[in-house]
Amino acid sequence: MCSTLLSLVEAWWAWLLLVHCVANMPLTKNLRVAIIDSNPALKSRNYLTNSTVPDSRVSTVTPATISFFKDIGAWEHVQQQRHAFFGKMQVWDYTGLGYTRYNARDVGKEYLGCVVENKVLCNSLLLRLQEELDDIENVIYPTRLASLTFPSKSRQAGMKPTSSEPLSVVHSTEELHRSNLVKLDLSDGRSLYSKLIGADGSKSNVRQIAGIKTTGWNYPQSAIICTVEHVVENDCAWQRFLPSGPIALLPIGNNFSNIVWTMSPEDSLRHKSMSPEEFVMSVNRALDFGYGPHPRSNALDHFMGKFFSGIGNTAASTKESFEVPPRATGVVSERMAFPLSLMHSHDYVSKRVALVGDAAHTVHPLAGQGVNLGFGDAAALAKVIAEGVSVGSDVGDLTLLRRYEKDRKAANVAMTAVLDGFQKMYSVDFGPLNVARAAAFHGAQYISPLKRNIISYAMGDTKWPIFS
What predicted TM-score, i.e. pTM, was given to this entire model? Predict the structure, then answer.
């Protein structure tokens, strides 16, 4: 079987978005697409009920990502399931010396982002795909990749034995055509031939076989994620930087919030084994008076507000005072822990290969940007494919794919550097440095032009957080 475009997926919501983008563009809607994944969630075709406890695995999607979902008609399915918009965000330092509040009104928007369970994002994309395709069951292959052979290689990589016949030996027009494609042998015995293949998560086998090198390192940190419950509904995204790493409290609706707490691997194991009551006490301590006092307004704040008010229009959040997050009353989901790392591919593409999402880059989760970078990759690759089809190019041609790489690499490297810089800046507990970074944090509360640029950058509206 031959497919014009094939995507291999592990973090498959980014690839589902790519499939939708391709299907919605007039120039590419006739391309044949295959998704290979044995994840049982791909069989889901119904709305997920709001009566259940939210899953621990969530994503904070930016307005830019929401626009992608709206363009392909999938956002209306998200709206029928659990999600939580937030228009405010508060970030503060454990020393009590500084805090910054952001408000969507600072940039004339209704919201800063939306927290959505990963399974809701995936299910919404599947529901929309089902509406678009009569043969969706012929697009999704609920199996695994057993081996992979690139057209320039005479040896087969993977689990299956090496073929004794070089790919250059062809005996028919069909064999000649297939000799220029990527061959994929599946664990169920079937084989596919494709002009372009995608990627399969941060430990991408496709990337390895293609010989694409990476740069990266493991952080001396792990993240614990879980769902907690409140007496009142949370409508703000909260993040506090602690000596061991940040803790975030993200609204997920129905008096629930999601916890993303970065700490040492040893502490993560200890927090996983705590009783629910002990864990909730630890969460509330981390988000309240634990490790240091609350930031307080003083005469310097009044001076800074007056001084920076002349630079430009004052942001709506500048006059907002520090608030204490809502207290958690219980942990209602499994506590999951996973190690944190940074990874970036030297190349995003090679002939007939395009890396997207986690296969191309992984970042620290302190700003929740990883999934949005992946969605941006998918949208950019779909656009490049459409441009190639419009002029009759081979969609797996390296010259064409380089345009996708050029578009995405600069933006992804910039975000990776920003997040890595924050991680390193808050990994050192040293008095003078603590004061300096807290002052910078607090200054951002009053410099409205800078604040608006930071918000726009985080929302995906601008590529660089430049002061203007």
Answer: 0.87
